[in-house]
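Quick note —
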Amino acid sequence: MMVFSGTRDEPLIIDEFDTMNLAHRTAIQQRHGKDHVHLLFVITALLLFAAAFGSIHLHPQPFWNDEWISLRYAGGDIYGPMTFTDIWTRIANANTSQAPAYYFLVAIWGYFAGWTPFALRALSWLMGMLTIVWTYRAAAEIHSRTAGLWAAFSMATCGFFIYYFHEARMYTMTPMLTAVCMWAYARSLRKPSMLTWVLLCVSACALPYTHHVAVLIPVAIGGYHIAFAPRAGMVRRWWIVFAALIAAGILYLPWLGVTLKAGEVVRADSSSAMNAKLPQVALSNVLYLFSNGTIPLLVVVAAFARGSHRLLTLPWVVFIAAMLGAILINLIVPFLYGIRYVIVVFPVLALIFGMGSARLLANLRRAKLIHVNSAIVGAWLIGGLWTASSPTAFREAYVIYLRWDMLAESLAEFAAPKDRVVFMLPYDTPRWIHNAPLEYYLYGLHVDPVMVESLRVFTLENYEQQRRLAFLGAPERVWVTHSPAHPPGEMLPPIIFSHLAENFVMCENRLVDEELQGELFAKAPSDQPLYLYTNESESLRVQLAFSELPKAVQAGEQALDMTLFSLVPPELPPYTYSAGVHVYDGNGVLVAQQDFPLPAYQPPVSGVTGCRPVTLPIRQLPRGTYTIRAYVYAWESDVRWTNNGQDHAVIGVLEIQ
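Predicted structure written out below.
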């Protein structure tokens, strides 16, 4: 029997160790102790690097479309709470492309950690870290601890894999389960126990329950077990492992019908065939993304991943069988339009890389070319950093994260019910990516959101269609918003703003940020009274008008919203005069008000009609009749201008019922 000493993979004969003298035995034990410390140091450094590397983009950006799917099907926030049965039923009936295991886990995690984007992404980060640990254990079990370190290194520095550390999806869960399944299978053959058999069954079953394509891993392991696993001297062990895999398959049967239905849905979708990757493209993309763009290096290292022991062929058989299965299925059911769907094979590739690196390193040491090892590490690491920091290397170029949370907070403070909110999407970013997240973040605001596109293929007629969509239904107030960091195409804003210039008045700009900017426009009322205020001492005149006010509201209404329009003379000095809208009860007591400087929007443009949203807090007011008055006054002296001989104008009477 042979064991591997430390991280050097040097065979040590146990019988010889038993016959060694005390001094020699002590020397070997000391070397083993040093190797153990070295091992702990390296694996700890790898994990710390992966933790930091994977945390770079663990940002509080709002959910994007795919992450919203995780939130919805796990019954999070406004979509829950849901039981496991509810989750199972919702996925089986509403979206057969999903599988329930990840959403079960998210439901448990969200219950304790919360439903914020950061909390759900932290779960992916945690499973990514566990993937690295289990990949090390699987490679160490199959080959050696040196192979384990190299396998863990390849996963910890794989930019494509690290990217999913900060996305609330199952693309770190399936690799984690693959690594666990590979370890449990190898362990069950070498040092079996009830725990390893149970872990093998659970992980093999959980894989297809997490993602449909992940069924290829336990199927490939089962094929290896039948064709290559030795039976001589271990017949009972062989059959127990086989029974564990069969049990996993039986447990998967309740979901098999949904998987087959998902295949039928994909086949019926004509766009799937157009977007699915060709076999050679799919394979090259897998190798490219796993190797951080260094396919030749991966091929050289993998060439050394061989040996006489049958177990060393396990990663090769599983990888080839799983990829071949994915490619063949893709020819029938064109699903493979994203390499993330086969990220489940990455830990298997890591095992191959680890075994090859261990043997290559031993050869380099014998040839005294150890510096080549540093070159391999450097090339792989640089490629990983570049890939992780440039997700467009494996994602479409459109923008997937927009600050819908910031927009919701601003609209909750400033917008009125039924306000139209027109968001000009970033250039060449389709609407469907943001439909669901926008609906989620604006839930309960009672505004009317519309997203307009500026796609690369748009003609002038397409832009006119976007303009008609933006103003469909003749809204009275319109918020026009966009992301300065991700601006729309240059043709879209002029078309939108030219329509506004003809029909609307610009109000105060309250949404100003490097990630979100927006202006409010209101349609000046043609059938509402015009109130003239004069300041006889300076011969100045100001005209005010208001949007139509309701005559009655229900008690407990949050606020009374209106729009104030003003026409000020060019000679009106800035920062001198203010307008106020005040609410008085039946006894003439002031109970609510809002005051602001004139002109009614900033920066001041004298002589031009401007407008401003007015929000009067009335939630605490009891039932009764209230009078709404408008004032114009000098804010320093409180000297009021006159309207028809009075210091105010009555603009409405409100009944709170």
